[in-house]
Design goal:
Length: 143
């Protein structure tokens, strides 16, 4: 989804990644990420947050983990200066939607205007379905 948005909007991207390297073993990954969520951790980010002063629109995407955004997303939101920016949320989920992440992000994105019509796409969709959903959503939020 991020690649389609980047291509269609001619935007540059910043990948929100934890300094910590997560294991490829899914069961171990589940344990680690569940613990991060339960402890409300804000892991250090791998790359410095870029200067966003000349940016008007921020497209913030993430996969849902434990019915929440990954904790590195919250690390980003607490450190990035998003004041005066329009923030558009898109996320992939396993058929349970975005839970309370829109509300949480709206609270953390101090001074930003968080669009209240996020794109919540099922991770079970085909690539073609996801591309069409992204195109339709971009048209909707830019109208």
């Amino acid at each position: 989804m991020a690649g389609v948005i980047e291509q269609l909007t001619h935007a540059s991207s910043y990948r929100i990644q934890s300094q910590k390297i997560y294991p490829s073993n899914f069961r171990i990954l589940e344990e680690i990420t569940k613990g991060e969520k339960e402890r409300g951790e804000r892991p250090a980010l791998r790359e410095p947050i870029p200067d966003l002063s000349s940016v008007e629109n921020v497209f913030l995407g993430y996969p849902m983990w434990w019915m929440d955004a990954p904790m590195p997303v919250y690390s980003f939101l607490e450190k990035a200066d998003l004041s005066g920016k329009d923030v558009y949320i898109f996320a992939a989920h396993a058929d349970y939607g975005l839970a309370d992440t829109l509300k949480t992000i709206t609270g953390l994105a101090k001074g930003a205007r968080v669009n209240q019509e996020p794109l919540a796409a099922s991770c079970f969709s085909t690539v073609e379905q996801l591309q069409q959903e992204v195109v339709s959503w971009l048209y909707k939020v830019n109208s």
